[in-house]
Specification:
This protein has helices spanning 2-23, 30-36, 41-47, 51-75, 80-97, 101-109, 116-142, 152-172, 175-191. With 198 residues, it is mainly α. Keywords: DNA-binding.
């Protein structure tokens, strides 16, 4: 399809993410997405035959990029705490690059029961995130950062729960509140909870 076709696809996906984040999947229309992308409806249908196929392609693309960026960020650090902090920083960067991404993903979560393709994508995203954190925990055990008998699955569950909570906060609150929460988690990773007395 060539470079022009790829650029148009990216433009359509960006418009889809923004529009669905604003109005929800059920209220989104191909016509409105076309207007957001400054294209005709016919142009949209040339690339994507239906709203569901367009949203699936958009979700697959953005989740693939985000997970890839988090994995790359983790690889730039050597310690578990360094890697977790790098992931948090990269997650912030992803939200800055794609301000609608968390609201887009949140709006899709309400549709997974009716749309198996969307449900499968969200499941794959969670599995990829869990695999990433499991690998980091295993590496930390291998390097002596964590005890050999550590309950790795419980640690992964805690990390995923924190990540999910931050994602939810990003989708439902103002950017500054999300940023402050990320910084608070980073501070806890670095120095522990600020406990006064005993």
């Amino acid at each position: 399809m060539g470079a022009d076709g790829d650029r148009t696809r990216r433009r359509i996906k960006a418009a889809t993410m923004k529009h669905v984040a604003e109005v929800g999947y059920a209220n989104a229309t191909m016509k409105a997405i076309a207007q957001e992308a400054q294209l005709t409806s016919a142009a949209i249908y040339h690339y994507f035959p239906s709203k569901e196929s367009l949203v699936v392609a958009t979700l697959e693309s953005v989740l693939g990029e985000v997970v890839g960026r988090l994995e790359e960020a983790a690889e730039r650090e050597a310690t578990l705490l360094g890697r977790l902090t790098a992931i948090l920083e990269e997650a912030l960067a992803c939200v800055e690059d794609y301000p609608s991404v968390t609201r887009f993903e949140a709006s899709i979560s309400f549709e997974t029961n009716r749309h198996p393709d969307l449900s499968a994508l969200r499941s794959r995203r969670r599995e990829a995130e869990e695999e990433l954190y499991s690998r980091l925990i295993s590496d930390a055990v291998a390097h002596g950062e964590l005890a050999p008998d550590v309950d790795g699955q419980s640690l992964v569950d805690v990390i995923v729960s924190i990540s999910s909570g931050l994602t939810y906060l990003s989708a439902t609150s103002v950017p500054e509140r999300h940023r402050c929460a990320v910084r608070a988690v980073e501070s806890i990773l670095d120095t522990g909870l600020p406990v006064v007395g005993k």
